[in-house]
Design a protein that fits this description.
Layout lengths: L1 H40 L14 H8 L2 E6 L13 H16 L3 E2 L22 H17 L4 E6 L5 H9 L9 E4 L6 H10 L5 E3 L2 H10 L30 H5 L5 E2 L6 H23 L4 H13 L7
Parallel strand pairs: 1-2, 1-3, 3-4
Antiparallel strand pairs: 5-6
Length: 312
């Protein structure tokens, strides 16, 4: 019997010891889990492609559900600038803004309207059907992932009309998200400052200001010494009364270059870039606090499904 008690005492001590060990193991596991979560919480990227899967819930919360698609294309920018200029610049600007006012920026997007540059090497001009479908499905997928407020920030003039049309078609059928067309307007004092610092007096594409904007971000992608190799002067080959055909751009700028960029400099570009970043910051803040657009859409969808006179 004494031997039995001794054995029981040993088992009790072992059980107690095992219990203490288990407590320590559990504590260590909890600590490691907390460190794991903390590791993901640190440096929450604003760029969709840099986020880890466990970070998306926090990213949605911090962003207020706001995601930006920075829209560019791949096209010639004279003989002196990279073909990815529009997409590179606008994506960089949106990332800078999102770092100031948290939002998530969708990866490098270059599916836009650029048929007017198909005659130039490096241009990628997708069909109208694909351009629309790509943007539509991208927005649907962004929303499915939890971001219900999508800002389209355009960096390419040739896509302006397409984006306006796309936003209007959001009313065609029910959606649980809202798409905003960014319509930035540079403050007058910034425009005056830019004008004071510019050497060229005309432009429109791959000009001094655009080249300067890219140079301020990616100096290796701008070669101003090549800017005079081709002419950026308008040809004036069309003269029509208050109308224009699709060939209007080629008529004036067959080199796909409008302006003179030999005097491009990063200081000028920084002025323009910084002003644009602040505009995007304000857009993000406005979208975060927008509690009206989605309910209004829902009200519209409801009425569109059963049209009848309603007094408001």
């Amino acid at each position: 019997m004494t031997s039995l008690f001794k054995q029981w005492g040993i088992f009790a001590k072992l059980a107690h010891l095992n219990s203490e060990i288990m407590k320590k193991i559990i504590l260590i596991l909890i600590t490691l889990f907390c460190l794991y979560i903390a590791g993901y919480s640190q440096d929450l990227s604003v760029q969709w492609e840099y986020l880890f899967e466990p970070q998306f819930e926090e990213a949605i919360e911090q962003s207020g559900g706001v995601c930006i698609i920075a829209m560019g294309v791949l096209e010639k920018h004279g003989p002196h600038m990279a073909v990815g200029t529009d997409a590179l610049v606008v994506h960089n600007l949106c990332v800078q803004a999102a770092q100031k006012e948290y939002a998530v920026v969708f990866p490098f997007y270059y599916v836009g309207q650029i048929f007017e540059a198909k005659h130039q090497p490096g241009t990628i001009a997708y069909s109208p059907e694909l351009i629309y479908k790509m943007l539509d499905e991208t927005c649907r997928e962004i929303a499915r992932n939890g971001f219900k407020k999508i800002i389209l920030f355009n960096g390419h003039g040739g896509s302006t009309a397409f984006i306006q049309f796309f936003c209007q078609t959001q009313l065609e059928s029910l959606r649980d998200y809202v798409v905003y067309e960014a319509r930035p307007s540079t403050p007058e004092h910034i425009l005056r400052l830019i004008k004071e610092k510019q050497v060229s007096t005309h432009g429109g594409h791959a000009d001094e200001l655009e080249a300067s904007s890219l140079m301020a971000m990616y100096p290796e992608l701008v070669k101003p010494e090549l800017a005079s190799v081709e002419s950026g002067e308008p040809k004036g080959r069309l003269s029509l009364f208050q109308m224009r055909p699709g060939i209007f751009w080629y008529a004036d700028y067959p080199n796909h270059y409008a302006g003179e960029a030999s005097n491009a400099n990063p200081e000028l570009g920084k002025i323009d870039n910084d002003a644009t970043v602040e505009l995007i910051v304000q857009m993000i803040r406005s979208a975060k606090t927008d509690n009206v657009s989605i309910p209004l859409q829902n009200d519209f969808y409801r009425r569109a499904a059963n049209p009848k006179v309603e007094v408001h």
